[in-house]
């Protein structure tokens, strides 16, 4: 039998790599990865009360493996905080809540504090562009970057347009163009207007940026 693990030894020196059985899922890592970031593992493997090995050489930890893998990822690269965010649904708050709970349990203080103060909100910046009016005729296919979003907002507008009493087309909408002949036809009659509908297009843009 190949016994490379010292976990069954009477000695207080644990092996440099360790296999954790977290809720049925195995994770192999360096012992120093666990003990340098987690107060829980530091105590567990400090020799004072080294955990009891189960199923051969793995330590059983009763925790959710899906959440634990994020803890382990963090412990392996401390300072690289997890980003649970997607453009369509935003931040995954329930995931952060779960992770914060587990980080507190395993005493990974920096991670737990970062989630508590919602440090992840600073990781994503949303730049809102100036709304721009655009002629509907100028809407054309466009290539944008993966972190950009462009929305077109359409407004149906109606306005009253001045009508020349002589119905001269180029005077339409321009009472100042009507001359004496037009005013003569107008006489004392009320000025006529015609309702005209138009589509106003307002373009808004958003750009997401990661702050790493
Ligand atoms: Zn006129």
Automatic annotation (TrEMBL):
CDD domains: BTB_POZ_KCTD-like (cd18316). Residues 16-76 form the BTB domain. Gene3D superfamilies: Potassium Channel Kv1.1, Chain A. InterPro entries: BACURD1-3, BTB/POZ_dom, SKP1/BTB/POZ_sf, T1-type_BTB. GO terms for biological process: protein homooligomerization. SUPFAM superfamilies: POZ domain. This is BTB domain-containing protein. It comes from Lojkania enalia.
């Amino acid at each position: 039998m190949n016994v490379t693990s010292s976990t069954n030894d009477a000695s207080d020196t644990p092996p440099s790599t360790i296999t954790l059985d977290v809720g049925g899922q195995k994770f192999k890592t360096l012992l120093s990865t666990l003990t340098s970031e987690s107060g829980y593992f530091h105590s567990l493997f400090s020799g004072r009360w080294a955990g009891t090995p189960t199923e051969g050489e793995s330590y059983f930890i009763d925790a959710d493996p899906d959440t634990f893998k994020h803890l382990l990822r963090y412990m392996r690269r401390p300072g690289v905080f997890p980003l649970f965010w997607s453009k369509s649904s935003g931040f995954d708050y329930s995931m952060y809540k779960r992770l914060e709970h587990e980080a507190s349990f395993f005493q990974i203080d920096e991670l737990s504090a970062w989630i508590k103060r919602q440090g992840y909100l600073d990781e994503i910046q949303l730049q809102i562009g100036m709304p721009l009016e655009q002629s509907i005729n100028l809407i054309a296919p466009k290539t944008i970057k993966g972190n950009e979003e462009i929305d077109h907002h359409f407004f149906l507008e109606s306005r009253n347009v001045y009508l020349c009493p002589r119905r001269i087309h180029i005077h339409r909408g321009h009472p100042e163009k009507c001359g004496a002949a037009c005013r003569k036809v107008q006489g004392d009659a009320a000025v006529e207007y015609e309702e005209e509908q138009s589509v106003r297009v307002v373009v808004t843009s958003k750009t997401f940026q990661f702050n790493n």
